[in-house]
Design brief:
heterotrimer; A: about 260 residues; alpha/beta; Rossmann fold; 6-stranded mixed sheet; 4-stranded antiparallel sheet; 10 helices; 10 strands; about 25% strand; globular; B: about 325 residues; Alpha-Beta Plaits; 2 domains; about 35% helix
Amino acid sequence: MNITEANITNNNGLLSKEEKEPVIICKDLTKKFGDFVAVDHITFEVNKGEIFGFLGANGAGKTTAMRMLSGLIYPTSGQASVAGFDVYHKQEKIKKNIGYMSQRFSLYDNLSPLENITFYGGVYGVPRKEIKERSRLLIEQLGLQNEANKLVASLPLGWKQKLAFSVAIFHEPKIVFLDEPTGGVDPITRRQFWDMIYEAASRGITIFVTTHYMDEAEYCNRITIMVDGKIEALDTPGNLKRIYNENSINDVFYKLARKATREE
Amino acid sequence: MNSLVLNNITKTFDKGSVLAVDNVSFSVKEGELFGLIGPDGAGKTTIFRILSTLMLPDKGNASVLGYDVVKDYKKIRNLVGYMPGRFSLYQDLSVKENLQFFATLFGKSIEKNYDIIKDIYEQIKPFSNRRAGKLSGGMKQKLALSCALIHKPKILFLDEPTTGVDVVSRFEFWEILKKLKSQGITILVSTAYMDEAMKCERIALIQKGKMLGLDTPQKIIESYPMKLYGAKADDIYSLLKDLRNYDQVESCYPFGEWLHVTIKNPNADGLEVLKTFPNSSTHQNLEVKIIEPGIEDNFIRLMNTSDNSRDNN
Amino acid sequence: MKQFLAFITKEFYHVFRDKKTLLILFGIPLMQITLFGFALTSEVKNADIIVIDNAKDDDSEKLINKLRASTYFTIYEKQIGYNAIEKEFKKGQIKAAIIIPPKFNNDLIKGKKSQIQILTDGTEPNVAKMLVQYITAITMDYQREINATNSPMMMIIPEIRMLYNEEGNGSINFVPGVMALVLMIVCTALTSVAVVREKELGTMEALLVSPFKPIGVLLAKALPYLVLSFVNLNFILLLAVFVMKVPMQGSILLFFFFSMIFIATSLSMGLLISNITDSQQVALLLSMIGMMLPTIVFSGFIFPLENMPKFFQWFSYIVPARWYYTGVKSIMLKGLDIHYIWKEMVALSMMGTFFLTIAISKFKIRLA
């Protein structure tokens, strides 16, 4: 599939063609672990304020790709820049300019919401005064006033995830990486979560998200489907359904991912 | 004949401060594929643990294959195949060793009972010397299922078997369940994926320990009390905001590529209302249509009408 | 029975595939014994010693010169009284004092024997013990020298007094104590972690819903570690005898039998700990720290129990290591037979049975 063309045919994005401003640029990005090619020459661009869905079967290379882009591991070959910084030489700068949230690790259970915000704000160098003011505001927005000083462990999962997302974007990163942020969350909270994602994107924060919920994939401006370390498809959800002649992204995904030959 | 009966089961934790299961009753017929549908924290795991005799209910009673879950726990433990939500196999043992261990634990042999796991196990057999910890998510689930089946249980409890597993593996897993059902095994399965509800014969929707509904998936869908519309435009987020602010709209939430919308006035032509709302002209490529509601739409509806929806709206 | 065997096989797989367990099993004993052993037997060098030569004759002069020639001591010759010596000790300036009696030479020649007095600082029992050994050795050496030219035999008898801690406590005594410590820690830590790990990984859930009996789970967990601990015991014994040079005066068979009782008690303790904890970390902490301190303090191998307040002395009776330490010393160092250690055996067996009974009766057949 021609990726450049896919970018141009994007009619679902928030920005028109003229305003496009890539914040993630990947070219032939590859990661090998010994003989095993975890990520195999992937090439794409993600634009400012875009919601970019990153799909793939277990073991397709999603996590590895995400780790390279968030400055946690070095690529074997290829080029990539994130928020304008090179993934080989500027890992520290990248980390400052991105947010990260995963289903597994996000908040400290034995700290209160307020303490979590203060901690992460501090880690990312948000000034103390600002942390104080904004954390109060954030607690209000999330409706956590009564829980602000209770331990995170006692919050329902949905609230935790919403709080975790807020914490991940608290330092106003250029890009936020979300690794299966809504696993197991109830359908209403999941939608509230996506409201927050939409809102963040409309403020210009780029959203890079993986999910197992295929209906959520449809909320994205563009999605890629990775199979065996390669990008099998990259387009808007609407175009993908048209191209593969399927009714839902679920079916498109199934069609592509079942071809996979390798497992984790 | 019912394989499984729950009567007013209630379970609390932390000295009664956390209500995990709230007065739940349902029964599962012999040979049925029954689904517990609900998000994390709905109480699904607690129900499984009560049924598999790992926990005692605070109130109510339950029986499995005619045996009481409290008094006859030893009998039940022999007859039930239980696959806990967490991957509960030995990561440092190989595929074969795990299977062997669980077979022996129940006093059975792999050879004698191989027919029941054959279809599933053949898929992971090429990796039988691999450590379980090194398997992919989908293969782990297959191994766990094989281990839960190897003693030929009459009833199978599967707690979120497809969580964290990709679409392809999930699809395969449900195919396996269909086959097991056809062999006469009663299956109680839970999932947080609403779309999987359609693959069950009957389902119970649960949220915060309470049952929201119980029926066949088809009947639950048909019970949706109003018309559901779909709307989309180029900028879906501003359309969402505009529709939510529009006083004719009762609810509006994203659902796949469409927004799912309900209209307050049941007699109004919803399509017309959605085409002509105040800001409609600002939206490019605005499309509206009537939508067939799904399980998830019902779940959302039931959640909102349930008393417990206080902190979700 | 088949189930039980399958369980045990599985347990061995766990151990051999987990480097951490193997490290605990063999790394800790090696480290502890050599660390404790060498730290406590390390040579004393340049210890300050006062020599009070009341004889000032040929022989005393020669003996002092011999002592001076050794690198172990720095000799100060002074003419001071007994009280003054004690003052020097209290100031911590000297480690030992040697008092040579008047008529040293005369006694040797006429009476064919003479005495020298060696005073040491019992607050540092190991140093004191070492010094006594060195001084005695040098004195004996000198005795051999003069006997080579003189006949009949003349004897110098060192009369040793350890001040402040008259009984003394030596490096050889330490090793049985370290053995108790190591076995206790390794056995409790390994078993408790082995059970708790199943809880943490969620495999306990799968075990509980099986018809396998709870007592089976516990015994199947303990048995492999009993075997491993036996292997470990051999390893420790070899270390003790060949590296630390601890003598084995008594019966090896009795030693093994007695040690296995102690190991079984420790394993039962580990099972008990595993019942009351839910995380490997807590279990490890409890068995490492919670066991180490009472074992070190109350087994008597570092701090003499006789000097403790009565309450602590009574308390020491419920510390298994105390019994083991006494028993092992009796077997290894004193060469005593079963008649002298039956009390220790009974005490340990009773404790083990007690722990195991509680562990089994408290074993949860359900989750929370």
